[in-house]
Amino acid sequence: MKIVQLMVSQHISGVILYFIVLFANIDYSGVVDYALKAFIGGAIWFAFKLLGEHLLIKLKEEHKNKQDKNEES
Question: pLDDT (tens digit, 9 = 90+) per residue, 18-34?
């Protein structure tokens, strides 16, 4: 049991050390720049998505009203 715990402990320590070294070499200004661009791009996409859905609902209502008028005539 202790051997398994020791092996798991060593494995976790190795993984933690790997990520510490990995994150030490990150260019944080590049990450912030990328995150900002991704956020702005996502906001633009979301605005177009909402606009498209709004226009689709509006067109469906106009089409329905047009059909109702034709049925009444």
Answer: 888 888 888 888 888 99
- Residues near 59 by beta carbon (within 8 Å), at least 6 away in sequence: none
Distance between CA 22 and CA 45 in Å, rounded? 32
Length reported for the chain: 73
Kindly state the tokens that stand for 5.
């715990």
Nearest CA to 66 out of 9, 8, 52, 58 is that of: 58
pTM above 0.70, yes or no: no
